[in-house]
Amino acid sequence: MSNLASNSTNVANQSAFYLNTKNTWLLPDGVVDLLSTEAVKQETLRYQLTRILISHGYEFISPPMIEYTESLLGYASEDVKLQTFKIIDQLTGRLMGVRADITPQIARIDARLHNNQDTSNPAKSISRYCYAGHVIYTMPKGLFGSRTPLQLGAEIFGTDSLASEVELLDVLFTLLDSTDVIARSHIDIGHVAIFQQLCQLASVPTHLQEKLIELYANKALPELKLLTSKMRQFGELANDFYVLGEAGNDLQKLSERLSTQAKHDAIIAKALSDLTYLVSYLEEHWDANVSVDVTGLGYHYHTGVVFNVYVADESLPLIRGGRFSNHFHHEVDNTDAVRSGVGFSCELNRWQNHIQIHEQPFTVVPYSHVQTILHVPNHPDAPALKQAIDSLRQEGHRVMIALDETDEPEQTTHRLQVANGVWYLEHLAEN
């Protein structure tokens, strides 16, 4: 009986070992390997887009993946804080974070440069930055979202001028155009200041602001109407909060239906004017498909124009952007205050799903040539073979020199052959 029990235990242990071994290579949800074509596509896209940004005068910078939480999260919104992995620094015992967004890091870098006492520092004037690097999320965004996306973005600091929004949108549409997705995209544009100023005028408490934001996000008009009907203490401004949700996608209708107090407020009037100009500009200069939503309130740190770019029929925006002021985050020390700026960011792992890249020919130098020519000292045909290999690589071919007779990958499209002393490409029939 004891032997039977012992055997059962051994079988159970072996099964557990097998299962554990089998699952060793199982990656966490939202974490994937990028192999071959997809990895090349992502790197090609990253290089192409960053070169365009650099050519427009944006300084490429690369912040670290980890920082102490005091600096990493000092400029971060609550959303980013929740998405940030925390670890203990084994050298100091201090709490560190793995970045979940690069924008706050760019804000930190610009703030430090701007507050440098060296008057020759270029960050004393308007500064432009671009970046591309991986971020890590504690939770994926969306049902099949990646937790390790490659984030690319651009920021302009040091100006409140609407011209900076125009420049950034021009650069953004240049990127879209360069990847042939502009015809399948549309931009949704809004302005956070309208809602924020209404809250300021009516002295709306924080908990009620959060409820309104939730209803706007869910497009819950019946619930919004019910809530605003109970906000009698805010006078005529109470109905303005419903008007934002009901007419927020039509600037003319919105302007007509806002209360007299809201219409004549300088901040709200300027926000509506800025939106009208930007919509007209994008339609005229880029033939863009533009929609308006003044209840699209962006991230917590946005304070002005906000925009989302959607591609095809996706429900999640491919690109998010907007303006933030020097009140980026209330915990920031005034000595390192963030300058006003505007920027956008995107995840390249999603962008690459909408593009096609030209497959490079894959050429193999057969092992027979390697063995009889390249491995033979001072072989008279070796220089010509090496020249042929170099020329093909310069033309964009991937050229691999076989290590044995079986070394020919499935993606091979050509073999390098020789006839009468002339090297030529033998095209392989597709399977």
Automatic annotation (TrEMBL):
Keywords: Amino-acid biosynthesis, Cytoplasm, Glycosyltransferase, Histidine biosynthesis, Transferase. Its main location: cytoplasm. The keyword Metal-binding does not apply. One of its GO terms (molecular function) is glycosyltransferase activity. It comes from the Bacteria. This function is generally fulfilled by the C-terminal part of HisG, which is missing in some bacteria such as this one. This is ATP phosphoribosyltransferase regulatory subunit. It comes from Moraxella tetraodonis. The lineage of its organism: Bacteria, Pseudomonadati, Pseudomonadota, Gammaproteobacteria, Moraxellales. The gene is hisZ.
